[in-house]
Fold this protein.
Amino acid sequence: MIAEDLKISSLRYSYPGQKPILQDIGLVINSGEKVGLIGPNGAGKTTLFLLITGILKPSAGQITVFEKPVKPGAFNPQVGMIFQHTADQLISPSVHEDIAFGPQNMGLGEQEINKRVKEAATLAGIQHLLERPPHQLSAGEQRLVALCGILAMQPRLLIMDEPTSDLDIRYRRRLIGILSHMEDKTLLIASHDLEFILETCSRVILLESSAICADGSPAEVMGNKTLMEKHGLEVPHSLSVSWHKHRKTIKKPGH
Protein backbone atom coordinates (compact mmCIF):
# COMPACT_ATOMS: atom_id res chain seq x y z
CA MET A 1 0.00 0.00 0.00
CA ILE A 2 1.36 3.43 -1.00
CA ALA A 3 1.78 5.80 1.95
CA GLU A 4 0.05 9.18 1.95
CA ASP A 5 2.87 11.58 2.82
CA LEU A 6 0.59 14.62 2.72
CA LYS A 7 -3.16 14.75 3.22
CA ILE A 8 -5.22 17.94 3.27
CA SER A 9 -8.93 17.97 4.12
CA SER A 10 -11.41 20.86 3.89
CA LEU A 11 -8.58 23.38 4.27
CA ARG A 12 -9.51 27.04 4.52
CA TYR A 13 -7.35 30.09 5.16
CA SER A 14 -8.03 33.83 5.22
CA TYR A 15 -5.62 36.63 5.99
CA PRO A 16 -7.07 39.09 8.55
CA GLY A 17 -9.79 41.21 7.00
CA GLN A 18 -9.51 39.48 3.61
CA LYS A 19 -11.57 37.02 1.59
CA PRO A 20 -10.46 33.34 1.80
CA ILE A 21 -7.32 32.78 -0.25
CA LEU A 22 -7.82 29.00 0.14
CA GLN A 23 -11.23 27.42 0.55
CA ASP A 24 -12.21 23.76 1.02
CA ILE A 25 -8.89 22.47 -0.36
CA GLY A 26 -8.61 18.68 -0.44
CA LEU A 27 -5.40 17.03 -1.57
CA VAL A 28 -3.45 13.80 -1.19
CA ILE A 29 0.19 13.40 -2.21
CA ASN A 30 1.63 9.90 -2.03
CA SER A 31 5.14 8.89 -1.06
CA GLY A 32 7.67 9.56 -3.81
CA GLU A 33 5.39 11.74 -5.94
CA LYS A 34 6.90 14.77 -7.70
CA VAL A 35 4.13 17.37 -7.83
CA GLY A 36 4.19 20.76 -9.52
CA LEU A 37 1.89 23.51 -8.23
CA ILE A 38 1.03 26.15 -10.82
CA GLY A 39 -1.28 29.14 -10.96
CA PRO A 40 -1.28 32.92 -11.42
CA ASN A 41 0.17 35.33 -8.89
CA GLY A 42 -1.97 35.53 -5.77
CA ALA A 43 -3.47 32.08 -6.26
CA GLY A 44 -2.38 30.96 -2.78
CA LYS A 45 0.57 28.70 -3.63
CA THR A 46 2.95 30.18 -1.07
CA THR A 47 0.18 30.37 1.52
CA LEU A 48 -0.50 26.65 1.04
CA PHE A 49 3.18 25.90 1.60
CA LEU A 50 3.27 27.98 4.78
CA LEU A 51 0.26 26.06 6.09
CA ILE A 52 1.83 22.68 5.28
CA THR A 53 5.02 23.62 7.12
CA GLY A 54 3.12 24.96 10.14
CA ILE A 55 4.23 28.56 9.72
CA LEU A 56 0.59 29.58 9.32
CA LYS A 57 -2.41 28.12 11.16
CA PRO A 58 -5.45 27.08 9.07
CA SER A 59 -8.74 28.92 9.57
CA ALA A 60 -10.41 25.52 9.20
CA GLY A 61 -9.63 21.98 8.03
CA GLN A 62 -6.79 19.61 8.70
CA ILE A 63 -3.31 18.92 7.32
CA THR A 64 -1.47 15.70 8.09
CA VAL A 65 2.12 14.95 7.13
CA PHE A 66 3.30 11.36 7.44
CA GLU A 67 0.00 10.57 9.16
CA LYS A 68 0.54 13.16 11.92
CA PRO A 69 -1.38 16.45 12.20
CA VAL A 70 0.72 19.54 11.44
CA LYS A 71 1.31 21.58 14.58
CA PRO A 72 1.66 25.31 13.87
CA GLY A 73 5.03 26.61 15.01
CA ALA A 74 6.53 23.16 15.59
CA PHE A 75 9.87 22.21 13.96
CA ASN A 76 9.57 19.10 11.78
CA PRO A 77 12.87 18.04 10.15
CA GLN A 78 11.00 15.57 7.93
CA VAL A 79 9.59 18.55 6.02
CA GLY A 80 11.97 21.01 4.38
CA MET A 81 10.98 24.19 2.56
CA ILE A 82 13.05 26.45 0.34
CA PHE A 83 11.51 29.92 0.35
CA GLN A 84 11.02 32.07 -2.72
CA HIS A 85 13.30 34.74 -1.27
CA THR A 86 16.41 32.88 -0.13
CA ALA A 87 17.77 35.90 1.76
CA ASP A 88 15.08 35.13 4.36
CA GLN A 89 16.64 31.71 4.87
CA LEU A 90 20.37 32.49 5.09
CA ILE A 91 21.25 33.82 8.54
CA SER A 92 24.72 32.55 9.47
CA PRO A 93 28.22 34.09 9.02
CA SER A 94 29.38 31.31 6.67
CA VAL A 95 27.90 28.88 4.18
CA HIS A 96 29.10 25.95 6.30
CA GLU A 97 27.29 27.27 9.37
CA ASP A 98 24.14 27.95 7.38
CA ILE A 99 23.97 24.40 6.02
CA ALA A 100 24.73 23.05 9.51
CA PHE A 101 21.94 25.07 11.17
CA GLY A 102 19.16 22.53 10.53
CA PRO A 103 21.11 19.43 11.62
CA GLN A 104 22.23 21.29 14.75
CA ASN A 105 18.59 21.95 15.64
CA MET A 106 17.93 18.25 15.18
CA GLY A 107 20.41 17.59 18.01
CA LEU A 108 22.92 15.69 15.87
CA GLY A 109 26.57 15.27 16.88
CA GLU A 110 29.34 17.40 15.34
CA GLN A 111 30.75 14.54 13.27
CA GLU A 112 27.37 13.73 11.73
CA ILE A 113 26.66 17.43 11.11
CA ASN A 114 29.96 17.93 9.28
CA LYS A 115 29.31 14.78 7.24
CA ARG A 116 25.89 16.04 6.16
CA VAL A 117 27.23 19.50 5.31
CA LYS A 118 29.93 17.99 3.11
CA GLU A 119 27.53 15.60 1.38
CA ALA A 120 24.99 18.32 0.63
CA ALA A 121 27.62 20.78 -0.61
CA THR A 122 29.18 18.10 -2.82
CA LEU A 123 25.81 17.19 -4.31
CA ALA A 124 25.16 20.83 -5.19
CA GLY A 125 28.74 21.47 -6.33
CA ILE A 126 29.39 24.30 -3.87
CA GLN A 127 32.16 22.81 -1.72
CA HIS A 128 34.38 25.78 -2.64
CA LEU A 129 31.90 28.18 -1.06
CA LEU A 130 31.72 26.65 2.42
CA GLU A 131 33.82 29.31 4.13
CA ARG A 132 32.28 32.26 2.27
CA PRO A 133 29.70 34.59 3.86
CA PRO A 134 26.30 33.91 2.23
CA HIS A 135 25.60 37.61 1.65
CA GLN A 136 28.66 37.83 -0.64
CA LEU A 137 27.33 35.15 -3.01
CA SER A 138 25.29 35.55 -6.16
CA ALA A 139 21.53 35.01 -5.98
CA GLY A 140 21.93 31.64 -7.73
CA GLU A 141 24.65 30.52 -5.31
CA GLN A 142 22.51 31.60 -2.36
CA ARG A 143 19.65 29.48 -3.66
CA LEU A 144 21.90 26.42 -3.80
CA VAL A 145 23.11 27.13 -0.26
CA ALA A 146 19.49 27.28 0.92
CA LEU A 147 18.84 23.96 -0.83
CA CYS A 148 21.85 22.39 0.89
CA GLY A 149 20.62 23.60 4.26
CA ILE A 150 17.40 21.67 3.69
CA LEU A 151 19.06 18.60 2.17
CA ALA A 152 21.39 18.33 5.18
CA MET A 153 18.32 17.62 7.33
CA GLN A 154 17.45 14.72 4.97
CA PRO A 155 13.71 15.54 4.88
CA ARG A 156 11.22 13.10 3.39
CA LEU A 157 9.06 15.91 1.96
CA LEU A 158 10.81 18.74 0.12
CA ILE A 159 8.83 21.89 -0.67
CA MET A 160 10.24 24.46 -3.11
CA ASP A 161 8.75 27.89 -3.83
CA GLU A 162 9.90 29.32 -7.21
CA PRO A 163 13.22 27.43 -7.07
CA THR A 164 14.55 28.67 -10.45
CA SER A 165 13.75 32.38 -10.02
CA ASP A 166 17.40 33.40 -9.39
CA LEU A 167 19.15 30.70 -11.40
CA ASP A 168 21.06 31.08 -14.66
CA ILE A 169 21.03 28.21 -17.18
CA ARG A 170 24.02 26.44 -15.59
CA TYR A 171 22.58 26.44 -12.06
CA ARG A 172 19.10 25.63 -13.34
CA ARG A 173 20.44 22.51 -15.07
CA ARG A 174 22.33 21.60 -11.91
CA LEU A 175 19.14 21.85 -9.84
CA ILE A 176 17.25 19.65 -12.32
CA GLY A 177 20.05 17.10 -12.05
CA ILE A 178 19.89 17.14 -8.25
CA LEU A 179 16.13 16.66 -8.18
CA SER A 180 16.27 13.85 -10.76
CA HIS A 181 18.25 11.73 -8.26
CA MET A 182 15.74 12.20 -5.42
CA GLU A 183 13.76 9.06 -6.06
CA ASP A 184 13.16 8.52 -2.35
CA LYS A 185 11.86 12.06 -1.73
CA THR A 186 8.38 13.50 -2.13
CA LEU A 187 8.57 16.86 -3.91
CA LEU A 188 6.08 19.73 -4.00
CA ILE A 189 7.24 22.55 -6.27
CA ALA A 190 5.54 25.86 -7.06
CA SER A 191 6.91 27.62 -10.12
CA HIS A 192 6.08 29.89 -13.03
CA ASP A 193 8.90 28.13 -14.90
CA LEU A 194 6.61 25.61 -16.54
CA GLU A 195 9.40 23.96 -18.56
CA PHE A 196 11.11 23.24 -15.23
CA ILE A 197 7.88 21.68 -13.93
CA LEU A 198 7.73 19.51 -17.06
CA GLU A 199 11.24 18.20 -16.46
CA THR A 200 10.94 17.53 -12.74
CA CYS A 201 7.32 16.62 -11.99
CA SER A 202 5.02 13.74 -12.90
CA ARG A 203 1.86 15.44 -11.63
CA VAL A 204 0.59 19.01 -11.84
CA ILE A 205 -2.01 20.84 -9.73
CA LEU A 206 -3.50 24.12 -10.96
CA LEU A 207 -4.57 26.47 -8.18
CA GLU A 208 -6.62 29.65 -8.58
CA SER A 209 -9.54 31.51 -7.00
CA SER A 210 -9.00 29.71 -3.69
CA ALA A 211 -9.54 26.26 -5.23
CA ILE A 212 -7.86 23.43 -7.12
CA CYS A 213 -8.95 23.83 -10.75
CA ALA A 214 -7.10 20.88 -12.29
CA ASP A 215 -5.04 17.88 -11.18
CA GLY A 216 -3.33 15.48 -13.58
CA SER A 217 -0.24 14.74 -15.64
CA PRO A 218 1.87 17.71 -16.83
CA ALA A 219 0.90 17.11 -20.47
CA GLU A 220 -2.78 16.76 -19.59
CA VAL A 221 -2.99 19.95 -17.50
CA MET A 222 -0.38 22.25 -19.05
CA GLY A 223 -1.05 21.08 -22.59
CA ASN A 224 -4.69 22.17 -22.35
CA LYS A 225 -4.60 25.58 -24.07
CA THR A 226 -8.16 26.51 -23.13
CA LEU A 227 -7.61 25.64 -19.46
CA MET A 228 -4.28 27.42 -19.23
CA GLU A 229 -5.48 30.63 -20.87
CA LYS A 230 -8.60 30.65 -18.71
CA HIS A 231 -6.34 30.85 -15.66
CA GLY A 232 -3.87 33.39 -17.05
CA LEU A 233 -1.20 30.90 -18.06
CA GLU A 234 0.43 29.78 -21.31
CA VAL A 235 1.08 26.30 -22.63
CA PRO A 236 4.83 25.58 -22.24
CA HIS A 237 6.68 25.97 -25.54
CA SER A 238 7.89 22.37 -25.65
CA LEU A 239 4.34 21.03 -25.24
CA SER A 240 3.05 23.41 -27.91
CA VAL A 241 5.78 22.31 -30.36
CA SER A 242 5.12 18.64 -29.64
CA TRP A 243 1.39 19.10 -30.28
CA HIS A 244 1.98 20.78 -33.64
CA LYS A 245 4.45 18.07 -34.69
CA HIS A 246 1.90 15.42 -33.72
CA ARG A 247 -0.77 17.09 -35.87
CA LYS A 248 1.54 17.09 -38.90
CA THR A 249 2.07 13.34 -38.60
CA ILE A 250 -1.68 12.62 -38.74
CA LYS A 251 -2.76 12.10 -42.35
CA LYS A 252 -6.17 13.32 -43.40
CA PRO A 253 -8.61 10.73 -44.86
CA GLY A 254 -8.04 10.18 -48.57
CA HIS A 255 -4.42 11.41 -48.50
Observations:
- Strands lie at 4-14, 20-30, 34-38, 60-65, 68-69, 79-82, 157-161, 186-190, 203-208, 211-216.
